């Protein structure tokens, strides 16, 4: 007696193996597709975060040092840089303390920018610094911490506490109506400097 060939069973098993292999391949393909989607999502989020960081970085880099006090004037970044510049240049330092959201500071800024003689002197004869934060030097607040406040420092690194505004309650403050007095004080700071050298 001959044993019948089992070809149909073998074919069935081969077919099942091929289907399983195909299933595994499809499953791997779908899983790799899901993985690919996750990788693409992560890259997209990373790209967006990087773009936002660049946008913020660009804003901080383009913020002018003038802060609206005169774009044609060379401004120093910090009090320390100002002190170093006045020693090199032998020009006095003019320090303007102000706040961006203070209405008195804003009014003074507008008057300061509108006065051409003050702008010219500031550009040519002074090292200029405008500050929205206080320094650690208590000499820059001889009668207290208030804004707006303008002080002068000579190249010998002496704060000129003798050059004051017109107000008795805050000696170093100026209002928009005090631009002539401020211009006179700027000239005084220059003259004192030259007569002392």
UniProtKB/TrEMBL annotation:
UniProt keyword Cytoplasm present: no
InterPro entries: AGR/TXD (IPR051099), Thioredoxin-like_sf (IPR036249)
Organism encoding this protein: Xenoophorus captivus
UniProt keyword annotations, A-Z: Signal
SUPFAM superfamilies, A to Z: Thioredoxin-like
This protein's record includes keyword Signal: yes
Name of the protein described by the UniProt record: Anterior gradient 1
């Amino acid at each position: 007696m001959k044993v019948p060939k089992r070809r149909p069973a073998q074919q069935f098993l081969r077919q099942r193996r091929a289907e399983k292999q195909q299933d595994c391949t499809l499953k791997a393909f779908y899983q790799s597709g899901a993985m690919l989607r996750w990788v693409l999502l992560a890259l997209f989020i990373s790209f967006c975060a990087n773009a936002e960081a660049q946008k913020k970085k660009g804003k901080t880099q383009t913020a002018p040092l003038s802060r609206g006090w005169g774009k044609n004037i060379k401004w120093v970044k910090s009090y320390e840089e100002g002190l170093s510049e006045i020693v090199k240049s032998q020009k006095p330092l003019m320090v303007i303390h102000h706040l961006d959201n203070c209405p008195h500071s804003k009014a003074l800024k507008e008057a300061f920018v509108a006065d051409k003689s003050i702008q010219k002197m500031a550009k040519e004869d002074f090292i200029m610094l405008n500050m929205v934060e206080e320094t650690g030097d208590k000499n820059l607040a001889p009668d207290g911490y208030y804004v707006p406040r303008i002080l002068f420092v000579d190249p010998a690194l002496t704060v000129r506490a003798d050059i004051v505004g017109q107000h008795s309650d805050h000696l170093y403050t100026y209002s928009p109506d005090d631009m002539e007095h401020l211009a006179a004080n700027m000239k005084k700071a220059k003259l004192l400097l030259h007569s002392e050298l």
